[in-house]
């Protein structure tokens, strides 16, 4: 779907697809793609048969037998799709909920695999409550080898809306409305499927995010600002510049950063917090340092908990956000 061209601000682009991106669009409107999502070719064929579906707290486990029915060895990827019940929140026809790939299977052999699904991964963001939620209703689970080659295997039943996580952020009003299909495809739930009744208590998760244990990329560092907060500056304020390797000298009155060869630890002038000259939009206004900022090969930039971009240090006058 093309971006909206009727914009007042040339720097803004409105993407109105909402949740209907990729296969979720084609499946929801019934448009037949040349190759469905999850499709793959091989030198053999497989038969996929579901043996069981069980529920343990918020985890659904689906056991599947995969038989190589062709004449050559090969591997198969079994996929599970979930269809969320219609409610207040906009939802696609289905979404990939889990998958597993077999080891190589010889012709005529059968292997058993288990696919686990965490039901909280199906939660959607609710703007009204600022939370990720699962709406009450019947969730249809289907198993197959692509988004268009599926067989229903189980129904998960939720008696009431369940809040998964409460969030503190406010996404605000984007100024436009996401696109929705006028006549979306509707799936009928076959009779006789196993019904797994989930307790909403098992769907609640801590509101605080787990710490990110990933290793920072080479050349990247994070440091607290030595002068957090806001400082009123004047035309005579001497300022500092930050680079990846060192904190440079205070900037000269020209506002240009000193050469790299002069890099050395900078000291703020007496009774004047350091503030980068490049943060001035038009002359020296109030300047705010963020509580933390990142530094890479191109200079300092916001880490997301920072002040507006116009108040952040920039490398050679180029704003980083």
**Class by alpha and beta content:** mainly beta
Summed over residues and divided by their number, the pLDDT gives a mean of: 76
Task: Kindly report the spatial arrangement of strands forming the biggest sheet.
Answer: 4-3-8-9-11
Please state the overall shape, judged from the principal axes of the Cα atoms.
Answer: globular
Largest sheet: 5 strands, mixed
List how many beta strands DSSP finds.
18
Radius of gyration: 27 Å
Strand content: 25-35%
Q: Can you walk me through this structure?
A:
The structure is a single chain. The radius of gyration is 27 Å and the shape is globular. The longest helix has 7 residues. By secondary structure, it is mainly beta. Strand 14 and strand 15 form a beta hairpin. The C terminus is likely disordered. A 5-stranded mixed sheet has the order 4-3-8-9-11, with no helix packed on it.
List the helices and strands and how they pair.
Layout: H1 23-29, E1 46-56, E2 59-68, E3 77-83, E4 95-101, E5 110-118, E6 124-126, E7 131-134, E8 137-146, E9 149-158, E10 162-166, E11 195-197, E12 221-224, E13 229-232, E14 239-242, E15 247-251, E16 286-289, E17 292-296, E18 299-302
Parallel strand pairs: 9-11
Antiparallel strand pairs: 1-2, 2-5, 3-4, 3-8, 6-7, 7-10, 8-9, 12-17, 13-16, 14-15, 17-18
Keywords:
single chain; 321 residues; mainly beta; 5-stranded mixed beta sheet; 3-stranded antiparallel beta sheet; 18 strands; disordered C terminus
């Amino acid at each position: 779907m093309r971006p909206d061209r009727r914009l007042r601000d040339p720097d803004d682009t409105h993407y109105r697809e909402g949740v209907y991106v990729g296969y979720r669009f084609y499946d929801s409107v019934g448009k037949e793609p040349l190759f469905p999502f999850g499709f793959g070719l091989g030198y053999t064929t497989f038969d996929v048969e579901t043996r069981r579906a069980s529920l343990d707290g918020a985890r659904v486990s689906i056991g599947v037998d995969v038989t190589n029915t062709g004449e050559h060895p090969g591997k198969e990827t079994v996929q599970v799709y979930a269809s969320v019940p219609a409610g207040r929140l906009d939802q696609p026809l289905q979404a990939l909920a889990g998958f597993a790939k077999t080891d190589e299977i010889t012709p005529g052999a059968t292997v058993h695999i288990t696919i686990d699904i965490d039901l909280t991964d199906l939660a959607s963001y609710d703007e009204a409550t600022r939370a990720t939620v699962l709406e009450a209703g019947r969730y249809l689970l289907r198993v197959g080898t692509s988004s268009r080659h599926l067989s229903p295997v189980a129904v998960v039943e939720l008696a009431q809306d369940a809040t998964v996580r409460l969030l503190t952020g406010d996404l605000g009003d984007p100024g436009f409305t996401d696109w929705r299909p006028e006549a979306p495809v509707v799936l009928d739930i076959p009779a006789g499927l196993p019904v797994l009744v989930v307790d909403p208590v098992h769907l609640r998760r801590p509101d605080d995010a787990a710490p990110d244990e990933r290793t920072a990329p080479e050349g990247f560092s994070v440091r607290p600002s030595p002068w957090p907060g806001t400082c009123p500056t004047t035309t005579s304020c001497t300022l500092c510049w930050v680079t990846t390797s060192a904190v440079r000298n205070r900037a000269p009155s020209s506002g240009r950063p000193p050469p790299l060869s002069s890099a050395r630890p900078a000291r703020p002038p007496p009774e004047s917090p350091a503030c980068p000259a490049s943060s001035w939009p038009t002359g020296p206004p109030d300047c705010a340092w963020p509580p933390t900022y990142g530094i890479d090969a191109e200079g300092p930039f916001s880490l997301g908990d920072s002040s507006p971009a116009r108040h952040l240090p920039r490398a050679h006058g180029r704003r980083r956000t």
